[in-house]
Amino acid sequence: VQLQASGGGLVQAGESLRLSCPVPSSEDFAHMGWYRQPPGKQRELVASLNNVGGTYYADFVQGRFTIFRDIAESTLYLRMARLKPEDTAVYFCKAEPWYGTNYWGKGTQVTVSS
Fold first, then answer.
1. d(CA 87, CA 75)
2. pLDDT tens digit string along 52-88?
């Protein structure tokens, strides 16, 4: 199963975006998360959500992003506000089942102009 992230685009600094990632409703996941890969850099963790609702955010998020899951829609979201040019990257979603192989999504491009 390959996930598909969507919702990226070209925005100006200070604007907002919401990324979406449908996840299989038939599985239970230990963790889900959003990663990003800026141009010329390695992929890095942005935010994660565990199975009891605990969240983690990278330091660079600084309170601007929110990760959440809509169980009814079986979708993982990343709400991003006050975007900065340094947030420009390809964003990926990841779902980690309790057993077996992790699911990665095809990325969605986020470009923030100054």
1. 22
2. 999 999 999 999 999 999 988 899 999 999 999 999 9
